[in-house]
Amino acid sequence: MSDVLLKYLPEHAVPACFELIKVNSVHLKIVNERVTRHGDYRRHPDGFHQITVNASLNKYRFLITLIHEIAHLVAFEKYGRNIKPHGDEWKLTFQKMMVPFIRPEVFPSQLLPLLARHFRNPKASSDTDATLSLALKQFDPVNDKNYIFEIPYGSTFRIHNGKIFKKIALRTKRYECIELQTGRIYLFNPNAEVELLPS
After folding, report:
1. Which of 33, 43, 99, 176 could form a disulfide with 56 if both were Cys (CB 3.0 to 4.6 A apart)?
2. Rounded distance, CA 21 to CA 185, Å?
3. pLDDT for 95-129, tens place per residue?
4. DSSP string, the chain
């Protein structure tokens, strides 16, 4: 198992992650990419804990996602099943579990201050922290995607389901875009990944 983890995680994170997987009896499944999420945790009716993480994530995002999902399991076991999935109990658990990893042997030095800031109050997804998300993106394998906030107004782009939009305006924190086929207006997070189309 630790040999497999070495392929997906920073080397110095492997022993601690292997231990967390063992201690919490996690069945870890590394799966082909799902667009909507990086990972998830499910407790099966027989008490079996399954965590899935996308194989396509870079090592640093994979580590954050794995600990995020194990934190769900640990928080539910400690505080009961009625807590909010991303409530205070989960945040506290996630923070505590990430602390041993936020060090230069595990993460590149340019990520450390961003991680320290993010984990003061972790969000349901590291993607909602645009600064951290952008910093993590630079470690992705070659990626032909752009973030919405990077592309010029008036440009057209395609999203994962094939729909084509034009970027129109910024509305508070989200970008207003029009779907070309229907004329409907949609709001996008600044760091939604899209495929820029030639103008």
Report:
1. 33
2. 44
3. 999 999 999 999 999 999 999 999 998 888 877 78
4. -HHHHHHHS-GGGHHHHHHHHHHTTEEEEEES--SS-SEEEEE-TTS-EEEEEETTS-HHHHHHHHHHHHHHHHHHHHH-TTS-TTSHHHHHHHHHHHGGG-STTTS-TTTHHHHHHHTTS--S-GGGSHHHHHHHHTTSSS---EEGGGSPTT-EEE-TTS-EEEEEEEETTEEEEEETTT--EEEE-TT-EEEEPP-
Query: 40 near 51, Cβ under 8 Å?
Result: yes
Predicted confidence at residue 1, as pLDDT, reads 67
Q: Are strands 193-196 and 156-158 parallel, antiparallel or unpaired?
A: antiparallel
Sheet holding 164-171, edge to edge: 146-147, 193-196, 156-158, 164-171, 174-179, 185-188
Scanning the structure block, which residue is given the tokens 């590149």? Answer: 108
Token pair of 151 as six digits: 């592309």
Render pLDDT for 27-58 as a digit per residue (tens, 0 to 9).
999 988 666 678 999 988 888 899 999 998 99
Give just the sign of the alpha carbon dihedral 83, 85, 87, 89: positive
Q: Which long-range contacts (CB under 8 A, 24 or more apart) does 92-98 make?
A: 94/67, 94/68, 94/119, 94/122, 95/119, 95/120, 95/122, 97/20, 97/67, 97/70, 97/71, 98/64, 98/67, 98/122
